[in-house]
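Quick note —
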Amino acid sequence: MFLSKSKIQTQKLATEFSKVVLKETICSQKTIVIALSGELGSGKTAFVQGFIKALGVKSHIPSPTFVIYRKYKIKDKDYFVYHFDLYRIQKSKEIVDLGFKKIINPLAGKSRNIVLIEWPEKIKKILPKNTVWIDFKHGENEKERIINIL
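Predicted structure written out below.
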């Protein structure tokens, strides 16, 4: 469990976590799915922004709430990071229709992906068994966040 006292601390935690995930992705040559669970405003998007920036993405990283997902090329690597925000979807079929299964199971040797999903509870039944879950909660103070990597 981690206690973050600011958006910057949340992003620093994400930066450190991204290094571990990147190493695992390279070694395993498999897609890694990370489910970010928590209430509105609990730090999920701030975490994702820090995570993606740490992978060398220079562009602005907005929440994909209205477009459902965004795809970013990892600098100097042959794979991508996907950021899904499922707040607006009602059924998992909506995400399947967008090619979700191909993203989490790319053809062997073709690519490896890192997939970050906000509001993963909406598609829990179709997530891989080895999905990494991170739980975000509001802390006692306004800017505090409790972050649990499960």
